[in-house]
Specification:
The chain is built from eight helices and no strands. The chain has 214 residues and is mostly helical. It has one domain. Helix 1 runs antiparallel to helix 6 and helix 6 packs antiparallel against helix 7. The longest helix is centred in the C-terminal third of the chain and has 43 residues. 43% of the residues are buried.
Length: 214
Amino acid sequence: MAVVQVAAFLGLLLSVIGSTLYLRDVRHRRTRPHRGSWLVWSVIALVAAASQGSSGGGWSLVILWGQALSTTAGLLVAVRCGVGWFTRTNLLMLAVATLGIIGWMTLANPTAASACAAAADGAGLLAIAPKTWLDPYSETLATYALAGATGLLAALAVQSWDPGLLLYPVYFCLGNGATAALIAARRRILQRTAAAADMMRSDSRTPVLASDIA
């Protein structure tokens, strides 16, 4: 089996695993998805997959359509168990995604559509950054890490090294990888802060002996 085919099916597998972990955490109330963000991300994923298909994305389409279906599943769960709806940032993301759809359908320019999709998706990641910083345990770290790996595999699965075809997968790898790194770093900071606080409380409870004063 060719390298691109292996990359495509491995990327699809990672996408399914990442989505399954996310849905599991939502079910157990560990992850709290934002409905507005997931609505926009679903639209963006569909735009990116359709855009890649119109310009001959090859085996990378296996990953991108898998990601689109997984994101749609995330949206359905977010509608039922998530929080919030539209914010100004969400509406801006949706507007950019809509421009991508219009550009893809009317201008026959898949590169422009992919660029708009990447910009809108990136705005979505930036929109959840404050929430992720304040409560890094409200997002599933493994899902973003696996999504970053999926983007890399999607880029490897592109059979034609066309910048227009590589734009969205490369962005997806970097954007989700950076989000995973943010979650991991913030969790480490909170763990160290909690450990330092526990140590201070433990020291304050330690009895002072006469020998220590002498």
